[in-house]
Amino acid sequence: MGAWATGVNMGIALQRNSMVKNTGPDMNKIFHTLDFFGPGYRYLVCGYPPFLKHMIDVAVERRFPLGKYRLMAVLGGEGNSEGLRDYLYQCFNPVYSGYGATDIEIGIAGETPLSLAIRREARTNHTLRDALFGADSRLPMLFQYDPLMHHIETNNQGELIFTITRLNILSPRIRYNIHDEGGVAPYAALRARALAAGVDLERLPAEAGARRFRLPFLWIYGRKDSTISVMGANIYPEDIEQCLCDEPELARVTHSFCLSLDEGSGANVRPCFSFAIRAEITTELQEAFDHRITARLKALNADFREATKEYAASATPLTRLFPLGSGPFSADGARIKQARLVWTSMSS
After folding, report:
1. Which of 2, 166, 187, 260 has the fewest beta carbons closer than 10 A?
2. CA atoms in the 13 A half-sphere facing the CB of 286
């Protein structure tokens, strides 16, 4: 996770339970470490979700035998789609995410076997998703948290407000807003919503032998402004990530992606999806991205589907493919966390 405060704090925390090597985002060091210690150990790899996907892709390119290793993953820093989790399951098991913020705490909430089972059920059960989280095309991250450690509420804009309730903290946070969008509910309240949709949380399949914690739930969509909007349709980075992961052939050659608005002639604005590609960019590959990503997005996002029916010229996305480190991805070499939004671009 690099030399950021979160990465350093995470490394210190993990020392209580394991041997830690803080490699940062250096693939050579990661694969050297695995090779040096060998497959006889269990490894917990912590990082941003796209970085762990990148680790799998690089291993395939280098023919590194990740399949021989017992790898577990802890994700953080941003949300992940269930499609991306499925991609990571190729080499990592289990795959859990934690929630926190450097300016509050790194360990506010975490995925549990129960919260993960609920989210994976809600991925395909839209009745359950609407009952739990409301009518929204996005599937939020779902965590559980300790209410004795953190008091979490929402404001009128649907933003989460955090208060640290422990006394042994040097710099307390009281009703602190980092502008993350989401919601909270006690265990009993969320279970009642699920029962109304025909699903009993007590009977949802989870990992064998896993404990079920009756702790309150916290769900996160992400930062409130992490979206582009065209003709009334909101398009989120999570949408594009899910579309990619539903197309494994395209996901394998994609290193990163970002969203923007493209302003063409006559001030016509349309969504623009840019992808950093780790393979030769051919006409066939361009056509595959043009058609398959748009088709997936129509199936996933109802507002986008309606917008393309009513305003095809303005809502149809412009898809651009770039070699690694070029175009809007030219600064990727200097950052660990991938940028998902690029402000309005101008067509040439």
Report:
1. 166
2. 9
For the chain, the residue count is 348
Side-chain-facing half-sphere of 121: CA atoms under 13 Å? 21
The tokens describing 190, both together, are 């969320």
Assigned CATH class of 228-346: alpha beta
- pLDDT tens digits, 48-101: 887 888 899 899 999 999 999 999 999 987 788 888 899 899 999 999 999 988
Q: Which two tokens stand for residue 305?
A: 């589907």
Q: Give the residue range(s) of CATH 3.40.50 domains in the chain.
A: 1-99
Cβ contact 248:221 at 8 Å: no
